[in-house]
Every structure is written in C-alpha cells, then in structure tokens.
Amino acid sequence: MRVPYVDFAGQYAAERRSLLSVVDRALAGGEMVLGREVSAFEKDFARLCRTKHAIGVANGTDALILTLKALWIGPGDEVITAPNSFVASAAAVALAGATPVFADIEADQLLSARTVEKALTPRTKAVIPVHLTGRVCEMDGLMALARARGLAVIEDAAQAVGAEDRGRRAGSFGRAACFSFHPLKNLNAAGDAGAITTSDDGLAERLRLLRNHGLKSRNEVLFWGYNSRLDALQAAILRARLKGLSKVVAARRKNAELYRKGLADVVECPKDRPGCKDVYHLFVIQCDRRDELQAHLKRRGVSTAVHYPTPIHLQAPAAALGCKKGDFPEAERQSARILSLPVHQLLSAAQIGFVVRSIREFYGR
C-alpha cells in the first residue's frame, strides 16, 4: 500500500472548485501585493490566534527577522532558542545581527524554563521558544522567567497554527509570534507566506512599516525597511483554507490517536500534555534502529521524514559560535531516534493501519 508523507494533489483535488473561485476573485480585484485580501486575512488570522493584530509577511523566516528588528535586537545581544528546530529559528537571530544561543530540550522535544535558565547570560535579550511538531511549549514557566529577567518572548509558532495550552492559542503568549504558511504546514499557502501576531499596538505598527520598506506613504520613507509583503493571492488562498482548518486539525488528531493505540507498546509516541491541544503538524515517534525502520517502511511504500537529523548546533555555521558535539545531550540523543510518520488529513484509517502493522512487523510485535 502506498502511504505518501504529503498529498498536495489530493488536497487540491478536494478544493479545486472553491480555490479557482478564490483565485479569480483575488486576480480580478487588481491588488497583487497587500491590499484588501491581505487585510481580510490578517483580521481572520488574528481572531484565530486571539490577538489584536496579525501582520502578513513573505515567509516565516522573515517573520522572525522582522520581529527581532522591530524589538531593536541586534549586535551585542543574545537570543536563546532550541537546537532541534529547523535552521531558520537560529538563522533569523544571526541575520538580525544578534547571536543565537542554544538551550537543551526536554523529553517532549521542547524548551522549558529549566533548560533556558541555564543558558542565560547578561547579554540575553530574548527567548524564541519553538512550538515544535504542533505542540505549545510549557509557557507559564517560560513567561515567568522572561518577566523576572526582562526578556522578550518571541514564539516560533511555524508548526503550531491553532494549537492550545490550557485555553490559550499558540501565538498569544509572547510579545509577538511568528508563523509560516509554507505548503507543508497545516494552514498552507500555494508557495511561501508568513505572519506575525501581537497584541502590542506600537510593535504592530512598526512591523507593518518594516515589511514595506519603511514607507509611511508611497513617497515618504520613515526608516530603512524590507520588502517582505504578503501577496494578495496567497492571502486569499489562506483565508479560504482557514475556514477548514478545524477539520484539518481534527483529522490529524484522529490519525495521531490511531497511531498511539497501535504503537504505544512498541515505540515512544507523542501525546497531548494535560489541558493542551496539539495540532500534529508532525507525528514524531522515538525509536531504536531508526534508520533501519525508515528503510523498512520505504520498501513497504510508506514515506517518512526526520525532523531534524542534525541539530543546529552541529551544523557548519554554528562552529563559529563555539558549539560542539555533547553540548546538548538530549537534543543529540533524540536526533538519532526521531522519525516523522505521515499524519496528514487525507490519510485513510486503512493507510494508518498499514503503517502500524509495518512498524510492528519490523519490531517482531
């Protein structure tokens, strides 16, 4: 049985008629960059995240860079983040002119106040907790630590659209939060797109200027800015897909539960923290003989992925930071054991069952 890791063709087939109507409306409107489509999506997305503002930008990496810049974080400052994230979490810090500093993770793959506190120095200016796989970090402790030390919290919520922690949505905890709508995400554009959420009026206004060259009007520039505007076409597609996000999340959560029921006695499966609602952008198991299992599943027609096989602190650019193997033992231990199983909303129960049987067969169970 073929079990694809993603199914973009299937998603488009299911949405084709409605999306073509949306594209026609957006193109007929005559506003290709920013404009009414973007404003409408920003309002809808802020409502989803339960924040006052959402600012559409070109992609999730730009969202992080612009937020750091808007908070005046740059040369001489340190920003703590996770070593087991996608490289953009740390790269954005470096591209803003600051220094990325890593803290080890807990068994759930996430930063905690305990691990972050160990990485603090007098130069620490901010913390970027990464809501990896669609699970919100334990934010109460992180926010308390940030308040005590006068630090800005910038949520990297790229994988966590709609996730909740005790009734609060990802994107509503920190000074700001950054989202990606890359095609692989639960809420996906037809290309790159991103957004920043905040309830800080002044920060929102500065971000809107920063994303658009610092332009107050067509002919008046207030400061040097960036070209990181959200396209109207992508905003229209995102707004349409936002209406179906709850169904996408429900399907992914159902698939995750099927995996747990079938695999909990064989491999280590993720599960919701009490009071939380994970959205399962990824379903990451931790297992022995990971590479052998992945090869076995590939032979059986099951596509999988590893997020991420080499922690950021062991990537080439981090050598200049003085990072080395052994610095973050939990992140390094997990990097050899993690495997992302297909969990997208278009999978059938039969496909999930086939993956479960294939894994149990591999381990002789």
**What average pLDDT do the residues reach?**
96
CATH homolog superfamily of the largest domain: Type I PLP-dependent aspartate aminotransferase-like (Major domain)
Tally the beta strands: 14
Query: What gross morphology would you assign?
Result: globular
Number of helices: 12
Which strands sit side by side, in order, in the main sheet?
A: 1-9-8-5-4-2-3
Low-pLDDT stretches: none
Q: Give the N-to-C terminal Cα separation.
A: 20 Å
Strand proportion: 5-15%
Helix content: 25-40%
Largest sheet descriptor: 7 strands, mixed
Instruction: Report the order of strands and helices.
Output: HHEHEHEHEHEEEEEHEEHHEEHHEH
CATH topology of the largest domain: Aspartate Aminotransferase, domain 2
- Going by CATH, the architecture of the largest domain would be 3-Layer(aba) Sandwich
Backbone structural class: alpha/beta
Number of domains: 2
CATH class of the largest domain: Alpha Beta
Radius of gyration over all CA atoms, rounded: 21 Å
